[in-house]
Specification:
The protein is an alpha+beta fold and about 140 residues long. The chain contains one helix and ten strands; from the N terminus they run αββββββββββ.
Amino acid sequence: MHKGIIPLIVAIILILIVFSAGIAFSSWGKNLIDIFKGTTENKTKTEMKISHINFEIVHASGTEIGIRNTGKISINVNELSFYSNDTLIDVFSITTPPSGTNFIEPGQVVVFNMTQSVENSEIKVTGPFGVSKTFKVK
């Protein structure tokens, strides 16, 4: 009688071990897929934003630099950096956009008043995601 019970108990234990391992592997695999899915979604959203961000330097003279948003989404003015001959220059004030907003809307031109003259220099403006434009001032 003992000969038949022991193999049955061993078989049940093996089945439970395999079943538990399957559940653990399934849970781990689902988490792994969720991680890859989240990374891919974030990358896709970032790439979509990059493709919709564009601007141009419309004028630069004296201490003023004018930027037009030629993209499809708003640009936060705090994400723009200004360089004169590869040296970072500070913004003294912003003539536009209207008070209370920090965004350049698509099609809108914003004039930045710099702390130093940009005459006779090469102006480089970098924006979100590394988008940059260069303008030579004579």
